[in-house]
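Hello again, I could really use a second opinion on something today. My current little project is about how a certain protein chain folds up. You're getting the sequence in one-letter code plus the fold written as tokens. Here's the protein in full, and shout if anything looks odd to you:
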Amino acid sequence: MKTSFKNQVNFALILTILFFLVLSCDAWIGLSGKVQDENGNAINQAKIIVEQGKSKVAEEKSGNDGSFGVRGDLSTFPFAGRIKLTVSKEGYEVYEKFLSQEELNRDKIDVTLKKN
């Protein structure tokens, strides 16, 4: 009987360790796209921020042609928070959006900023 109990304890310990190893693994995010104004003109040096919950995952600025590409680590911990994209540039309204899984799977996310 003692051996069986000891085996059960060892098995439970191994499962617990595996569970926390899986939770501690990070995933990554890669978003690219273009920032433009309402007339389709590229907006350079717009600030692009990706957040998960209250943590900043990535920050980048758009290039001269308005294009951007951001990469960062995401937490796989349950309830770590939704993914939010924020794009800002002086003279324009701030763009904020929580991204759906479909949007995260897209190759490109284009953002249109409106003048203040």
Q: What stands out?
A: Residues 2-24 form the longest helix (23 residues).
